[in-house]
Amino acid sequence: MHIMRLVAIAIFMFGIAYLAVAFDIEVSATYATIGPRFFPVAIGIGMVLSGVWLFATPKQVLEADSEQMIALDWPRFGGLLAIMIGYITLLQPLGYIITTTMLMLGGSQLLGERQHLRRDAIVAVLLAVVTGFVFARLLGITLPEGLIGW
Fold it and tell me: pTM above 0.70?
């Protein structure tokens, strides 16, 4: 079996497991149209559909020395994995604004040009505050307050 099909199966299975956990999120009767399980369920459905699409898409066999063959950058992959684990771990104690800022800043520094730290920090703070405002105030979704509450 082609390696991409194995990846597709793994994405599909992870999506199914993610959906099972997402549907276990309790929803009280006070929630309107968008409750606490809306986005987790949407993400799970996206993962399942991505796995199906990746499995069904015809694969082009690439030569090992082809221009299209790109080696995985393991240090960056590991760094992104560490950032995501840190985000999950620190979200409750530090809150949405601080951890989302750290996620955005860390990801942009890891994937982009490191000489733009000030710009990346400003964008990270703005994105965290704006998305936090949209989720908390406009959509009524409860976010972890942590050290900085609304």
Answer: no
